[in-house]
């Protein structure tokens, strides 16, 4: 069965969150290269699709969770 485009997008989003959780600090360019998509696609992933995850850039332009953000905390 052919893989659907939303399968690829979901895999990419989960992978990005996993990298950030492990504090791997990827760049937009490195993610675009790894997933074979444009930088614009990664920017859309980060700033629109994952906008609720409090992702920012460090001083070197690498993606990180904002200080104090806990992926496992929940709000009621």
UniProtKB/TrEMBL annotation:
Residue ranges the record marks as coiled coil: none
One matching Pfam family: HTH_11
Helix-turn-helix type domain residues: 12-46
Entry superkingdom: Bacteria
Protein name: HTH domain-containing protein
């Amino acid at each position: 069965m052919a893989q659907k485009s939303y399968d690829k997008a979901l895999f990419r989003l989960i992978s990005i969150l996993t990298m950030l959780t492990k504090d791997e600090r990827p760049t937009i360019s490195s993610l675009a290269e790894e997933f074979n998509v444009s930088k614009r696609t990664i920017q859309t992933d980060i700033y629109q699709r994952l906008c609720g995850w409090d992702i920012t850039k460090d001083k070197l332009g690498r993606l990180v969770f904002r200080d104090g953000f806990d992926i496992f905390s929940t709000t009621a």
